[in-house]
TrEMBL record:
InterPro entries: Cyt_P450, Cyt_P450_B, Cyt_P450_CS, Cyt_P450_sf. Pathway: Steroid metabolism; cholesterol degradation. Belongs to the cytochrome P450 family. Gene3D superfamilies: Cytochrome P450. It comes from the Bacteria. GO terms for biological process: cholesterol catabolic process. The lineage of its organism: Bacteria, Bacillati, Actinomycetota, Actinomycetes, Mycobacteriales. Keywords: Cholesterol metabolism, Heme, Iron, Lipid degradation, Lipid metabolism, Metal-binding, Monooxygenase, Oxidoreductase, Steroid metabolism, Sterol metabolism. Signal peptide: none annotated. Its cofactor is heme. This is Steroid C26-monooxygenase.
Length: 399
């Protein structure tokens, strides 16, 4: 028996020590307890890629309608209609379709030059210096600016919205998430929405204000103001901090692997693949939750109706059964079907935008900063049981 297997296997998403490097615990979960039960917080967890996909494809058994985050399920808060990440088909399908209809590949593609210009100007400011904070100086800024560009929010207001959304998924180390005021009802965007309704333009907010929703009986109607607010809040809360962490994790992974970083400097066509590998290796969202709607079995063990089950993205993405030598960072992996954007009906609606931001940020970084070393002693992780990433990620740079 190995030394590790004598130590009791324990996992919870609030444990800041586990969060520093959860992968050894994930490995034990996959091998020793592929269906894990945590008594303290009363939840089950699946960690193998196949089991995670099974949870995400069976939306009759594993439902999102009571909240898809452990703390939100426990808090039993009522989410407004249209917060479709916390809904189930057929209502989920109806609401998702509206956003899908306006959040088009064209809308995403036309952001490319604006995102690039923002990254370039943020990075130009540090050329010549020997320090750079990948999170504070870039990762925490790009996603909210991008969502602002998408929605047409004036620049002067974007910083306020970033702070509001970051707070919505934060908790002190070891503590549970408390849904913030304004998170679910979108009140922090109300003023902008009213202004945009009076000043239509070529942006996603104007499209939302004009969008039509098809009710179950086939009738069509415009969205209510409350629904527009809800959609806006969903976009900002799902797409801001997650994507910032992607940018920061790219810096960490390539800081640890200078040989692969040099390959990217020499051949930028490898960058999209490197972003996929960063997403796989260091997923910004580590887990989501589902409510179990009827008794079900995993590996011969019963999960009773009324339980909460977590699907562990970080664990599934390192599953050697699917990704040989899963803990190894390798930008040359082929067909990386990671679970960082979920799977099935709730598959991330912003994945194309997140990939675009990650790619452009990395392209612009590597053009100016070919060489860096993360100053890990002074880096600080962001406290959140839902997401895993950095508040501060300083580096010594060679520009
Ligand atoms: C690297 C960045 C991102 C990661 C890791 C990520 C991850 C995820 C995951 C895992 C889900 C599925 C949740 C579940 O199964 O309950 C999801 C859903 C979603 N994401 Fe993302 N996301 C990212 C960026 C974005 C962006 C940029 C946007 C939009 C601006 C966005 C909008 C959404 C929306 C609207 C949903 C709900 C989809 C549904 O329930 O049908 N995400 N995301």
């Amino acid at each position: 028996m190995s030394v590790t297997s004598q130590i009791e296997l324990y996992y919870d998403p609030y444990d800041a020590d586990i969060d520093v490097d959860p992968y050894p615990v994930y490995r034990r979960l996959r091998e020793e307890a592929p269906l894990y039960y945590n008594e303290k917080y009363d939840f089950y967890a699946v960690s193998r890629a196949d089991d995670v996909e099974r949870v995400l494809t069976d939306h009759q058994t594993f439902i999102s309608g009571r909240g898809a985050i452990l703390d939100f399920i426990r808090a039993d808060i009522e989410m407004p209609s249209g917060m479709f990440i916390f809904e189930d088909p057929p209502v989920h399908t109806m609401h998702r379709k509206v956003l899908h209809g306006v959040f088009t590949p064209r809308r995403v593609a036309e952001l490319e030059h604006k995102v690039r210009a923002f990254c370039a100007s943020s990075l130009d400011a540090v050329v010549g210096s020997d320090r750079f904070d990948f999170m504070a100086d870039l990762g925490s800024l790009v996603p909210m600016r991008t969502i602002g560009m998408l929605l047409g929010i004036p620049e002067s207001e974007q910083e306020t919205h970033r702070h509001d959304t970051d707070r919505s998924l934060r908790a002190a180390p070891g503590e549970q998430l408390a849904p913030q005021e304004g998170f679910a009802d979108g009140s922090s965007y109300a003023e902008y929405i009213d202004w945009r309704a009076e000043h239509p333009s070529d942006d996603l907010m104007t499209d939302l204000l004009n969008a039509e929703l098809e009710e179950a009986d086939g009738t069509r109607r415009r969205l209510t103001r409350a629904e527009v607010l809800t959609y806006t809040t969903l976009l900002a809360s799902a797409g801001a901090e997650t994507t910032g962490h992607l940018i920061a994790w790219s810096a960490v992974a390539l800081g640890r692997h200078p040989d692969q970083r040099r390959e990217l400097v020499e051949d930028s066509s490898l960058i999209p693949r490197a972003i996929e590998e960063v997403l796989r290796l260091e997923p910004p969202a580590q887990q989501f939750a589902r409510w179990v709607n009827r008794d079900v079995e995993f590996h011969g063990q019963k999960v009773p109706e009324g339980s909460v089950i977590l699907y562990l993205i970080g664990a599934a993405n390192h599953d050697d059964r699917r990704f040989p030598d899963g803990d190894r960072f390798d930008i040359h992996r082929q067909n990386v079907k990671h679970l960082s954007f979920g799977f099935g009906a709730h598959y991330c609606l912003g994945s194309a935008l997140a990939r675009l931001e990650g790619r452009i940020a990395l392209e612009e970084i590597l053009k100016r900063i070919p060489d860096w070393e993360i100053d890990i002693a002074n880096a600080r992780m962001a406290p959140s049981p839902a997401l895993r990433g950095w508040d501060s990620l300083p580096a010594f740079i060679g520009t």
